[in-house]
Amino acid sequence: MLKLGVKCSYAPEQLYDRLQYKPDIVELHLNEDDLFGKKRKQLENTISMLLSLGLEVYLHHPTRYNGSHLNIIHEQTEHYLFFHLSSRILADICLTHSIKCVIHPHYQITNSSLINQENTDKIVNEMKKVLSYGEDVFLWENSIYGVFTAQNPNWFEDIVKPLNLQLAYDISHAFISFKGDNQLLLEQIIKLDPYIQYFHVVDSEGQKHDGLEVGTGGVIWKSIIPFLENRPYIYEVVLEDENNAVEMVASHQYLLGLLGRSGQEQV
User: Fold this and answer.
1) Contact 175/224 with Cβ under 8 angstroms?
2) Per 3-state DSSP, what percentage of the chain is helix, strand, and coil (rounded to 5)?
3) 236, 251 in Cβ contact below 8 A?
């Protein structure tokens, strides 16, 4: 059975909008200042409220600090320390509420995320530190380019398997890594199936990060639906208005339509 998973901040306008669609899963996207003081209290109150409604709740580690993307081996000391401090805080929050957090080892191509053995070893060492804060808390998300991506032919053998990582698999990121090749995408999902705990469901033309509504890009969804039926996911599509999740809901309706047609074909 397909579930409706949505993403938002914990701003009231976005929460009210998402809740009107009666979702099964909510992922809360966090900013760098959401983990401290009154904002942390507000975040934890929001988590408790959503859990009381019977929803599954996931957090997303902040993507930026001081205006630049976070990287687990960031060259700037302040960014590096924030990555680990925020990870510790999120591990504490997640353990308190029995939820999980999506985390990126890196986002963009930098010298520290280029595909080579030195960077791989560094990232593995830093990931081990983060795992020590709460091994079962973090869901590691693939980016598009670099070491921790489908673009890296040794990604599974050098990182995922040795660390026995729980993955948050972003379908569009992998699709772009594979330059729009649906066969390679499906083969990797099958290979990683035991490690994928969570999906980001989003379409793409396969050339750049475009965050398309499901059904409007190049991903062949019919073959992927069986993997979505037995684990949580959210629709991480780009919205025209952050306070209106209509594109997420339309994505869900598209997959339900495919599932309905598939069932009719089997009959």
Assistant:
1) no
2) 45, 15, 40
3) no
β 56-60/100-103 pair status: parallel
Residue 151 phi/psi, 5-degree rounding, is: -65, -25
Q: What is the pLDDT of residue 261?
A: 60
What domains are there in the chain, each with its CATH number? 5-266 (3.20.20.150)
Each residue of 180-202: b (16+ CB within 10 Å) or e? Answer: bebeebbebbeebeebbbbbbbb
Which backbone phi and psi does 155 adopt, to 5 degrees?
-55, -50
Q: Give the contacts of 195 (CB within 8 A, at least 6 positions apart).
A: 160, 161, 164, 165, 166, 167
Mean pLDDT of 150-169: 96
Residue range 228-257: average pLDDT? 96
**What φ, ψ does residue 247 adopt, rounded to 5°?**
-70, -30
Task: Check: CB of residue 36 under 8 Å from CB of residue 66.
Answer: no
